[in-house]
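Minutes, project check-in
Item: structure for the 220-residue chain
Input as provided by the requester:
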Amino acid sequence: MSGDRVSSDAVTVAGVRVPDTKLAREADELVRDTTSELIYHHSRRVFFFGALQGRNRDLSYDPELLYVGALFHDLGLNERFHDSGRRFEVDSADEARRFLTARGVPEDSVRRVWTAIALHTTPGVPEFLEPEVALVTAGVEYDVLGIGFDDVAQSDRADIVSLHPRPDFKRRILEAFTYGVAPKPETTFGNVKADVLAHYVPGFERGDFVRTILDSQWEQ
């Protein structure tokens, strides 16, 4: 565990307070211990930026569920999932579900977190679902893609990045995506990670939806 990682306990940044509950602390500890510093800092920023976008959108959400969703959303990039045969988003969501179910969290809450994680790379859908689902994606889109960049005040953005730095983040997160999905390229069909492999994996051929239809065994 990296020495400069911070505890989840009683941290408030940009007016957003990290949930100081047993569940949140255990989630934070698990993710700190099983992911890279890059992914941990990114995941915490996703929580803060998602929460701020929730404030901007006047959404009422459960901070604890948003926090767990943000923390777990990239866990499926880890090496132990390279042979799963599933999209990394689903591996991440399943890990969150196991974590929450083992702690007696109600099924509806578990479903919200699972959905938030599973859909966080599927633009155009999460924004119409429950606030926790919408805001995990909003946090990811803000931190990775810069979508809605000016929606967050510069001072708030600076405070968050001061707590969770992003040195050379663009290059390093793309490396992490490549590392996580290259062993199972078939899982990128129809989603944004195909773009990653097309850029960084020589010889990768993305699936073609139209070709798949035309080449199917149906006569017409």
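Outcome recorded: The longest strand covers residues 12-13.
No further action items on this chain.
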